[in-house]
Amino acid sequence: MAPPETMYCAQQINIPPELPDILKQFTKAAIRTQPQDVLAWSAAYFTALATGEALPVKRRLEPGATGLTAGLLEIIYQQLKDKNVVTLGLLGKKWAELGLPKQQLSEIVQSGGFAEEVEFIKFFAVTCSHLGGGNITEGMRLICQILTTDPDGGACRIQFTLFKELYQYLASLGGEISQSQIEGVISHLQEDVDKQGGLVMPRNFLSPECPKLS
Amino acid sequence: MERTTQTVTTTANSNAQASKEKRKKRRRRRTRAVVDYEEMSVRYGAVKLQVPTGFKQLLENLSREILREQPKNIPSFAAAYFNRLLERREQGFADGYLVSERIVESESAPVEEEVLAPIEVAAEEAATLSQPTVEESMPDLTDPEVEKAATLIQASFRGFTARKSATHVNKTPEDSVKTEIPPQDEVEGSQQTPAAEVSQQEP
Questions:
Q1: B83 pLDDT exceeds 70?
Q2: Strand A85-87 vs strand A117-119: parallel, antiparallel, or unpaired?
Q3: Which of A113, B41, B48, B64 has the fewest CB neighbours in a 10 Å radius?
């Protein structure tokens, strides 16, 4: 690109001092996020920037990823986590901003049996399970990975109360997991949790000693 | 070639026996970034970072619109700009990227007005000159329909000027690259350097 000193016309073009940094951050965000629909994503990016919301930017590059990914789900989570209840319309909007296929959203909505108004954390849990290929164990691992406040590559600990709530919800959704199995998992994990200050991490329930989650 | 160096480096890293000098050499080679300005990509060994398809054009259009409008709040201007383009795309304008309509902030930007003023004044003058003879058929200016039509015409005219200026802006940097920019001291002379230079070099 030409340096700003270049004259394009008689009037020197005034470059707002904040513009270079805005464009730089925007470009970095685009490289990292690799949005499917560049225009829709750009509109969402600047709307979020103007209103001070969480930006639709992945924390790291996910090479070769298409469709929904953990990074994209994390964006949706960060943007909607403060809302208890969201409408399907809002979810559809976020979906489109990230260039995700509508088909995938309707599959998730169907498997969760969601109506027009959705409890966001439940939608989030079902989406994690969907992302994990319908496997509850993998879904719970993703839930921990996204919800944790541990640093990247850390233990991915989350509050056990939240874990219990989401696990019971996901397990009851399919209707194939018996109540005694659910209780067995929870009572087993409770021992680990008591030693970990009320937190649970994927290593606890991925361990061979832990009863199967599903 | 870059790819092979990358794999060599990773295997070398596991080999603790590798001599210090060799390592240094490899590190220097590995960290060299290959930058392609045309496609906006950077390559570090096997890792290639690139903007998504269509991003370059979009960034150019955005920059041009911001420089043209000089908005006070750039993020909200950009948000309005992209949302408008998105709307237009949903309405079925395939080339929504190129047809740029002016989006003016609620507080109009005075700088931009100055730039466009001569054209608008000229257009208005032309309009008023042709009007008097057909005064009977003069449309009612307060009619909202007329206002709508006027906005449409103005918008398409601005789209036209924008596209014109876009091709102009696109060409300029490339031209300047091809015809290597002369050293500073030569440029500083006067506005008509090319001619002056030639005459200086000829004798």
A1: yes
A2: antiparallel
A3: A113
Contact B52 A22 (CB under 8 A): no
Long-range contacts made by residues B146-155, C-beta under 8 angstroms, separation at least 24? B155/B101, B155/B102
Tokens representing residue B20 in the block: 């210090």
CB pairs under 8 A between A and B: 85
CB contact under 8 A, A8 and B169: yes
Report the range out of A9-23, A136-150, B47-61 with the highest average pLDDT.
A136-150
Give chain A's largest Cα–Cα span.
80
ipTM for the assembly? 0.82
What separation in angstroms does the CA of A37 have from each of A102, A142, B40, B51?
13, 25, 18, 12
- Segment B6-32 shows an average pLDDT of 57
Please report which confidence band the pLDDT of residue B144 belongs to, taking 50, 70 and 90 as the band edges: low
Q: Which residues on adjacent β-strands are paired with residue A87?
A: A117
A1 closest CB neighbour out of B52, B67, B173: B173
Mapping DSSP to helix (H, G, I), strand (E, B) and coil, where does residue A81 land? coil
pLDDT digits (tens, 9 = 90+) for A38-89: 999 999 999 999 999 999 999 988 887 788 999 999 999 999 999 999 999 9
Q: Is the Cβ–Cβ distance between A79 and A57 less than 8 Å?
A: no
- Residue B172 contacts A where some CB pair is shorter than 8 Å: yes
Cα distance between the two ends of chain B: 49
- pTM, two decimals, is 0.65
The token duo for A60 is: 């790291």
CB-based contact, A7 to chain B, within 8 Å: no
State the average pLDDT for chain A. 91
B50 touches chain A (CB under 8 A): yes
Residue count of chain A, please give it. 214
Measured between beta carbons, the chain B residues lying within 8 angstroms of A26 are 59
Measured distance between the N- and C-terminal CA atoms of chain A, rounded to whole angstroms: 56
Residue B165 forms contact with A (CB below 8 Å): no
- The pLDDT tens digits of the residues spanning A193-213 come to 999 999 999 999 999 999 998
User: Would an 8 Å CB–CB cutoff place A179 in contact with chain B?
Assistant: no
| B13 close contact with A: CB closer than 8 A | no
CA distance A65 to A74: 14
Interchain pair A23, B52: CB under 8 A? no
Q: Give the residue, A2 or A158, on which the prediction is more confident.
A: A158
